[in-house]
Specification:
The complex is a heterodimer. Chain A is α/β, with parallel strands linked by helices. Chain A has helices at residues 17-30, 47-50, 60-64, 78-81, 96-103, 107-118, 120-126, 143-151, 163-177, 199-212, 225-230, 236-239, 244-258, and strands spanning 4-9, 34-39, 75-76, 86-90, 132-136, 154-159, 183-191, 217-222. An 8-stranded mixed sheet of chain A has the order 3-4-2-5-1-6-7-8, with helices on both faces. The mean pLDDT of chain A is 94. Chain B has one domain (3-133): Arc Repressor Mutant, subunit A (Orthogonal Bundle), CATH 1.10.10. In chain B, strand 2 (122-126) and strand 3 (129-133) form a beta hairpin. In chain B, helix 5 (94-101) packs across helix 6 (105-117). Classes of the chains: A alpha/beta, B mainly alpha.
Chain lengths: 259, 138
């Protein structure tokens, strides 16, 4: 099997990109896949909080800066989170200084960064033998996110039911994803339970969403208080394998695999 | 027929064959050279067309800074496809780009030369082949 690069993106912040990226990575690891999860949200890094016990020699920032090669950035989290597969993690530097440095980069740097990201396909998928690279990105039209989208084979757009979020996702479809001819799917996250309370309600909801989004909807994920309570402190699907959220994520993983 | 006559005939045949082979090699080389020149002419015409389209005045004054993703987004669809393919390949001939984009080689050659004229890419001839690349340092 040829490995896949998946970028998880959204128009607005707080849609659940990181939570879904982490749990999708965990879902693939559970089915024996070799996965690498990367934090490309340099403005608001978050994966370091979840993998706080593991330290790498370098940050992902350093790889993009050309200071080191990717192997120096990767943390092997297989021991704690492998679950039968393999999980590697690349973290973004959360220090204020690093965030300031990353936001002040010029266009030439961003062009080189795109080249560094594109070369991950040969170093990690072809030579490194990985099955999936999952890129957790910054929301909106940021350089790092668009670089990730250009690099990816599949783009997953996470959206809530917020009107401005839906509107923004629609615009990004025609002004971003379409332009790069990317395979793109929508994940509707944090859906209020009322909308999915019966088969009839669910059908009505699905019909409405299909009319709103031109792209295929790969998952409709209900809002679970338990998932919110995990608060980025642990990998939910790992702790609660029997929870409906885990089942939804597993189904999503299968769909993305065949997408 | 004496042995001598046979020998002379054989020698004559070998000489003719070798002369024929030489001629064949020469004409192949000549045809290759003509093809190469035609390709170069085609590329030059592409560049001229591009300059005519955009007006020479616009080009040197407003040279783009870099082929970053925002620039990629601003390109027309047909050129974006070529530019993205070259970003992925880092350095490539029109042939290699056309393999990625699944469009004809002549089409890609035209687009790549347009991108060179627009200042987003560079072109270098090495032997008979022309290589295109994004200049990351310049």
């Amino acid at each position: 099997m040829v490995g896949k690069i998946i970028a998880v993106h959204s128009y607005k912040g707080g849609t659940g990109k990181t939570s879904l990226s982490v749990n999708l990575a965990a879902s693939y690891a559970r089915r024996g896949k070799k996965v690498c999860l990367m934090d490309l949200d340099f403005r608001a890094p978050s994966l370091h909080a979840l993998f706080k016990d593991q330290k790498a020699e370098y940050w992902l920032n350093d790889y993009l800066n050309g200071i080191c090669e990717i192997d120096k950035v990767l943390i092997d989290a297989t021991k704690d989170h492998g679950n039968g597969g393999k999980l590697l993690v690349a973290l973004a530097n959360p220090s204020t200084e690093a965030i300031r440095d990353m936001t002040a980069k010029d266009r030439k740097w961003e062009m080189k960064a795109l080249g560094r990201l594109l070369s991950l396909r040969s170093s990690l998928l072809n030579d490194g033998d990985l099955d999936y690279i999952i890129l957790d990105t910054s929301p909106g039209l940021q350089y790092s996110s668009i670089n990730a989208i250009v690099t990816a084979d599949v783009v997953l757009v996470v959206t809530s039911l917020d009107a401005s979020d839906i509107n923004g996702s629609q615009r990004m479809t025609s002004e971003l994803y379409d332009l790069f001819e990317k395979k793109t799917g929508i994940l509707i996250n944090k859906v209020i339970a009322d909308y999915l309370s019966s088969e009839k309600e669910r059908k009505k909801f699905d019909k409405h969403m299909k009319s709103v989004h031109r792209l295929p909807i790969l998952a409709t994920i209900p809002c679970y208080c338990e998932v919110l309570r995990a608060a980025g402190d642990f990998i939910f699907t790992e702790e609660r394998p029997d929870h409906p959220f885990t089942e939804t994520l597993d189904k999503l993983a299968t769909k993305v695999e065949k997408f | 027929m004496s042995y001598n006559t046979v020998d002379t005939e054989n020698t004559l045949r070998t000489t003719t064959m070798s002369a024929y082979r030489k001629l064949e090699t020469k004409s192949t080389q000549l045809l290759e050279k003509i093809r190469e020149n035609l390709e170069q002419l085609n590329e030059k015409i592409d560049v001229m067309i591009e300059i005519q389209k955009h007006g020479k005045r616009e080009l040197p004054e407003d040279l783009p800074e870099a082929l970053d993703v925002m620039t990629l987004l601003s390109l027309p669809d047909h050129l974006r496809k070529t530019a993205v393919a070259l970003c992925k390949l880092e350095e490539a001939t029109a042939d290699e780009v056309s393999e990625q984009t699944r469009r004809a080689r002549a089409v890609e050659s035209g687009y790549l030369n347009q991108l060179v004229v627009m200042g987003y890419m560079k072109k270098e001839r090495r032997g008979r082949k022309a290589y295109f690349f994004v200049d990351k340092e310049g």
